[in-house]
Design brief:
Order of helices and strands: HHHHHH
Strand content: under 5%
Number of domains: 2
Number of strands: 0
Oligomer: single chain
Distance between the termini: 64 Å
Low-confidence stretches: none
Mean pLDDT: 82
């Protein structure tokens, strides 16, 4: 038999069971926690992976742009990095951190 309960109903049921049958309570608690952890769907994890890939690509473009600017003895500004890399100004500004600059050395 299958019963559909919302979170509040499950918690109320678990409270009632915890007083009389602890082993059943622990089984329900484990199942409830597993269901909550499954809320991160495949789509959400795919979105995270795609975001990491875009960030990696942007960082690589910025590092290449900084190296090109250094080879040409041009001043390294956010605007110049954005223009040479093909990234937006905001993306270049986002990755202007020391982490990206240290990777260029």
């Amino acid at each position: 038999m299958r019963i559909t309960l919302n979170d509040d109903e499950v918690l109320e049921l678990m409270r009632a069971i915890s007083k009389s049958n602890y082993s059943l309570y622990t089984k329900l608690q484990k199942q409830f926690n597993d269901d909550v952890s499954r809320d991160i769907t495949k789509k959400q994890s795919s979105i995270k992976e795609a975001t990491k890939a875009r960030e990696h690509t942007a960082k690589a473009k910025i590092i290449n742009a900084i190296n090109i600017l250094r080879l040409e003895n041009r001043k390294i500004t956010i605007y110049a990095v954005a223009k040479v890399s093909g990234c937006s100004y905001n993306t270049a500004k986002k990755y202007q951190s020391k982490e990206v600059l240290h990777e260029c050395d």
